[in-house]
Amino acid sequence: MILRRILKPTIFTTLKGIKRSCQSFVKGMELNELVRHLENYAPLSLAESWDNVGLLVQPSTTSHLVSSILLTNDLTEAVMEEAIRKNTNMILSYHPPIFMPLKTLTRNSWKERVVLKAIENRIAIYSPHTAFDVVKGGVNDWLASGLGKGTVRPLKNTLVDGKLGTHKVNIVVPNDQSKVDELVTKLKQADENIDVNVGELLHDVDVNFKCNAGSLVKIMNLLNSDFSEMLKRTDVFSLAKVPLQDTGIGRLCTLEEAVSVETMIKRIKHHLKLDNVRFAPAKLGSQNDLINTIAICAGSGGSILKGVKADMYLTGEMSHHDVLDAVSNGINVVLGEHSNTERGFFKDVFSSVLSVMLDGKVGIHQSTIDADPIIIT
């Protein structure tokens, strides 16, 4: 009896201690919560309309605890095998491995095999792509950070709907107080977020408000069904989109102090950790020409940079004819290869940002295999 009295509390206390110890070592975050953090950092609405971004592969179970993330610029078969070896349960791939629609999931193409391996091994795949390009502090700002002190602004700011709505509606009705009150009440019932303004005209009343496109359909149906006889005039105006500060496509960098072409190329190679880049000198230019403005676009920048006035273009790749156009217009062109102008963002910036974002609950690993497929020899 004495032995039992001594052992019982001792075992119970030990088990409680083990439980607390195990809980303190539990790491991870639910996939849905993790995705919310990523979308708060770079909303998917910022991505280009043609892009395929966000959560591309999701395990079938309702709950998916992410304890380890692998960061990669391109999700190749080799990188997928690396993720499996490292027991990763989520891959953050800058480029979306699913871009064009997949009509089948077989072993016939490498992209299908990558998706199949992710599904079989319960690995989630998330791709931010152009959302990371345009966001403040994203890929293009990282690319600009290695060029020298100066000012940086987007080549084209991202436009978004204003906070008050996408449309303005002006309605003219007879000056009948009870009818106007009824109209205002029903408008607010249709959209509780609108702010209805009422102003008196000479013989009539002007009712105006701003709303979003979704509410507009509902409101127009209301007006046509319940108030059609009292409407004297209805005008609907589309509101201009609002540019987001420091957010948008590409960047234009203006240096505090101009430097030679040679110096700028050295800075670029150092920042991208490359021994070589491709360089097309401006027509009639020389290595001693001074560079004050650099227009940049991570990845493939031919269409984005076209027509931009600058002393130099920096991007990953451009077509032969786009390069000819640029140098003929007196612009130096530096090409670092597509993914070389993107990859450093994950290594130099985002891995640390992500660790703080996730409160250190998820292990973050950088792919050691991911590399640009083009090698300059």
Automatic annotation (TrEMBL):
InterPro entries: DUF34/NIF3, DUF34/NIF3_animal, DUF34/NIF3_sf. Keywords: Acetylation, Cytoplasm, Metal-binding, Nucleus, Phosphoprotein. GO terms for cellular component: mitochondrion; nucleus. GO terms for biological process: regulation of DNA-templated transcription. A divalent metal cation binds at residues 95, 133, 338, 342. GO terms for molecular function: metal ion binding. SUPFAM superfamilies: NIF3 (NGG1p interacting factor 3)-like. It holds the Pfam family DUF34_NIF3. Its main location: cytoplasm. It is found in: Cytoplasm; Nucleus. Coiled coil: none annotated. Homodimer. Interacts with COPS2. Interacts with THOC7. May function as a transcriptional corepressor through its interaction with COPS2, negatively regulating the expression of genes involved in neuronal differentiation. PANTHER family: NGG1 INTERACTING FACTOR 3, NIF3-LIKE PROTEIN 1. Belongs to the GTP cyclohydrolase I type 2/NIF3 family. This is NIF3-like protein 1.
